[in-house]
Amino acid sequence: MRPSSEGFAEMLDQVVAAAGRVQEAATGGAEPVRTSAANGWVEAELGANGRLAALTLDPGLKGLPMERVAAAIVEAVNTALDEQQAQRGHGGPAVDLSEMMAQLKQVQEAAVPQMRSFVDALTRAQQDAAARATRG
Q1: Which residues are within 8 A (CB) of 39 and not within 5 positions of it... i.e. 6 or more apart?
Q2: Buried b vs exposed e over 100-125: b needs ≥16 C-beta within 10 Å?
Q3: What angle is formed at CA 82 by the lines to CA 77 and CA 86, rounded to 5 degrees?
Q4: Chain mean pLDDT for the chain
Q5: What is the C-alpha separation between 100 and 105, in angstroms, rounded?
Q6: Is 44 exposed, middle or buried (0-12, 13-18, 19+ CB in 10 A)?
Q7: What mean pLDDT do residues 56-71 have?
Q8: Which tens digits make up the pLDDT trace of 65-107?
Q9: What is the H or E stretch that residue 114 is in?
């Protein structure tokens, strides 16, 4: 199976879209919030409108198991949601994160084999390049 960067990007887009749909139920009026997880390797930013504005993943994450990466994404997004909700006060409607959590689980389940395939392809390419260099 050939790894697809478009497929991984599409899955991350689904995460962003799910977070946005969940946040649409919340009232506005909060300031943008930026939080991090996994020692700063995952950052989530919510806009003032309560929607996920950015999700930044440090390239150093490629060596971690995808389960840990997914958990760090969930942690960063949830922390940002909590901080923004605290800014608004507790007068707004409760935010139901179950839809986003279900979609994050689906993304995690799909991303793990794809990322493993991607890393395996990179490893094979590196081994091939090293073998050619020693023969050359």
Answers
A1: none
A2: beebbeebbebbeebbeebeeeeeee
A3: 150
A4: 78
A5: 9
A6: buried
A7: 86
A8: 888 888 888 899 989 888 888 887 655 555 567 777 777 777 7
A9: helix 98-135
